[in-house]
Here is the input.
Amino acid sequence: MKKAQELIGACLRSLREHRGLTLESLAAQAGVTYQYLSSLERGRENFSIQVLERLAVALQSSLKAIVVQAFEDVERLEAPKVNPAYFHPDAPLPEELTLAQLEAALNQTQAIFNLINRNMLLEIERPLRDFIQGNNFSGLVSNIFSDAMDANSPYKHNHDQRYPDLINKAADNGNGVGLEVKATINVGKGGESHNGHSGWHTIVCYEITDYGIQFIHVMFAVLNGHMEQDPDWQYLGSRENSETGSRRTETYTTVLKGTTKLRDGTVFLDPSKVNFKRWRQERSGAIPPWSIFARVQPSV
Here is the structure.
């Protein structure tokens, strides 16, 4: 294992570069020479607690945070990013939404959960995944992703608190285009909604990791509402839990044809995590050319 001074030195360099500071500027703020700081970052120089505290202040951090980060895995110092090679550029997206904007929103969401996870490790020495119980966590993922979409795309929060979650008011010649957002750990799962309306829907599928979350599958599709002639939704009603006595809110889920629309609209897929070949399909016409199923036929 590397010596403590090497680990702490490497952590100081990572934090300095992340803050956009030069050796000279950080050294001046901490009251040391840049030659000394350079040797410290390379693990070739000893340091006192006082020097490390001054460096921590200059780096807008703390002594405790630097020591903890230094002994974490290197990967934990940087938030994971989605692999650009996993995007399917032919899949349709809502008007004026680009793959670059979607990628930025996914990465921002992962970065936020990475930060939450690191703070939990720092404060209570337990990762975020210790407190997650399956899909109960999905509401938070959905909310943070929606906020990231608001920050990185023309799809903004619908402040009326009604359907849909996001709206691009300038799209469709000023009539506006909405986007409903759902998150789930159940990869390839269809849609679930409290309204079953028509319009654009996206489902972002993720897995829980040691560093927070990682997106592995993202789907977009225009779905027909439950009141349409050919609906993509079915009404499940409001059911009571026989054990707890609690009652679920009114719920709609996609029928197989609606689920297939979403799967056809796969925009992002990690092939090392997702095996879609045996997923069931149902559609009125031919497989659309952008569909994942058009590339590799699933097994029967």
